[in-house]
Amino acid sequence: MSPLPCGMQEIRQVVDVTYFPEQEGDFGEMWSVGPQVVTVLSVLTLSDGNMARGVGLRCGLSDGLLHIHGVYRLRLKPVEWSEKMMELNHLTGI
């Protein structure tokens, strides 16, 4: 995590997707799937509706499997504490 202006935080999340081909050692299948997965992972829609763009996306073969690597940088807004959150905090300590 890295601090940003206005109290925001940036999280750098590294992702490694491993693809197992239907037939072991089928390099043709892996090389046809790799670019498709890179395209799908280029932009992810998060649960809150925001989008995260993958940077440094690449695919490669290692140990007979296809690995797709990427990095996502997510910016988090500061959390505002309220009375109810403080009460909940105290209740969990009992």
Question: Can you walk me through this structure?
Answer:
It is built from 2 helices and 5 strands. It has 94 residues and is α+β, with helices and mostly antiparallel strands. It has a 5-stranded antiparallel β-sheet. β4 and β5 (65-76) form a beta hairpin. The longest helix is centred in the middle third of the chain and has 15 residues, at 27-41. The chain is elongated. Residues 88-94 have low confidence and may be disordered.
Beta percentage is: 35-45%
Compressed to H and E, one letter per element, the order equals: EEHEEEH
Mean pLDDT: 83
Assembly context of the chains: single chain
Topology, element by element:
Blueprint: E1 2-3, E2 9-19, H1 27-41, E3 43-45, E4 51-62, E5 65-76, H2 83-92
Summarize this structure briefly:
This protein has two helices and five strands, in the order ββαβββα. It has helices at residues 27-41, 83-92; strands at residues 2-3, 9-19, 43-45, 51-62, 65-76. A hairpin with a 2-residue loop joins strand 4 and strand 5 (65-76).
Key descriptive features of the protein:
94 residues; alpha+beta; 5-stranded antiparallel β-sheet; 2 helices; 5 strands; 43% strand
